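_Per-residue structure_
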Amino acid sequence: MEEFKKKLKKKSALWLLVLIVSLAGIGLFFVFGGLLFGMDPELRRSFGGMFGFLFILSLGYYVTTNAALGNEKKLREAYIRSTDERNLNIEARSSNVTLNIVMVCLFIGFLFLTLFSGREAGTIPGIAFYGIWLIKSVVKSYYNKKM
């Protein structure tokens, strides 16, 4: 249990770092983006919104992690949740399905952009699709050899 506590403390520190970076991003782009970089208001709002979402997400994880560290019962529940084989299997399968859906969407986007907008428009989705496919293949072969 002590090892799990150390792991949670590292996660808590990581979430605190993400909180600080996202707060700096909100200030840099949303508040000072026009003054420092001459950015359009729409672009500033977009970056501010992305960093704001990241801030809210990391705040939630930071509070949850620290709540588990401060309460023995919540710590035990978090440990069980993170080591339960059923939850780990669900997480692995859902991650695989999500990655496959993203790959299909990128490939469809690549096809439509290439066919209807010219060759240049489909370059980024095509590179992203083949890059993800390559990474997935390498990781899959690594785990097949490992197991």
In short: DSSP finds six helices and no strands in the chain.
